[in-house]
Amino acid sequence: MATTATGIEAAARRRPARFAEFARRNPTMLAGLVIIAAMAAVAIASPLIAPHPLAINPIDRLKPPSAAHPFGTDMLGRDIFARTVHGGRISLLVGFSVAALTTVFGTAIGLVAGYLRRLDAFVMRVMDGLMAVPGILLAIAFMAIASASVMNVVVAIAIAEVPRMVRLVRSVVLTIREQPYIEAAVSIGTRTPKLILRHILPNTIAPMTVQATYVCASAMITEAILSFLGAGTPPEIPSWGNIMAEGREFFELTPWIILFPGLFLAATVLAVNLVGDGLRDTLDPRIARRM
User: Fold this and answer.
1) How far is residue 32 from each of residues 19, 39, 158, 205, 288, measured CA to CA in Å?
2) Residues 6+ positions from 232 with CB-CB distance below 8 Å
3) Which portions of the chain are predicted below pLDDT 50?
4) Chain-centre distance of CA 75, in angstroms?
5) Local structure of 66: helix, strand or coil
6) Model-level pTM?
7) Local structure of residue 107 (DSSP, 8 states)
8) CA 85 to CA 88: how far, in whole Å?
9) Distance (Å, rounded) from C-alpha 106 to C-alpha 273?
């Protein structure tokens, strides 16, 4: 019993040292994680921080930043600070949801296309067809057919991002399936589903995770573009994109309407990219050895 307690205490003492070593090796990744955590905390607590993002007060329209309104007000007298912190919920939700959907479907399709040769040509021609259309145009076309909602925005962006994940996973599978241990597993009669899940899928996790971070950042930007063009989330749901869209006509008089949501969007996308770069450096054994 005493030995177990001593081992737990020793492990607890090693944790600060491990964290310090992680921070030393991955300072940019740590900075990105801190920014994302801060943005997520503000977004989750937005109903408590600023409970009335839709409150209209025409008397206070187009007011500059002040103590009462830290980010100023828009053309309807709505508080930009309240709308910006609430808009973070939409951008983060869209980014992480698109990354999750893209990872699940892109990985599944990429595994099948990469391992099953008879399906490879057909699947990849479909993916090439989707990639031939710019992602933003594909998303706009989908939103023109579907109704404006957050879920439809997630699906529209995910459709455009899945082919890139498929190509990445397929390229990894094409390399792995020629390895001797895969041939040995096939020779002893291992079934294809078990072979893919046990021997091939684990080798795709590292590149897939890194790609998912870039998909997340790209999805946030695409959501902002869709909302800016009026093809994204409904106007009654604050998002960084539609806040900037509503304020573009007043930019010369009131630049803060666009400035603050734009800064939040830029900081969040930068943080996600920093985490992606850090994951790439950590998960790539060649780079990790140099570090």
Assistant:
1) 15, 11, 23, 21, 19
2) 143, 148, 153, 223, 224, 225, 226, 239, 241, 242
3) 1-2, 287-291
4) 31
5) coil
6) 0.85
7) H
8) 5
9) 20
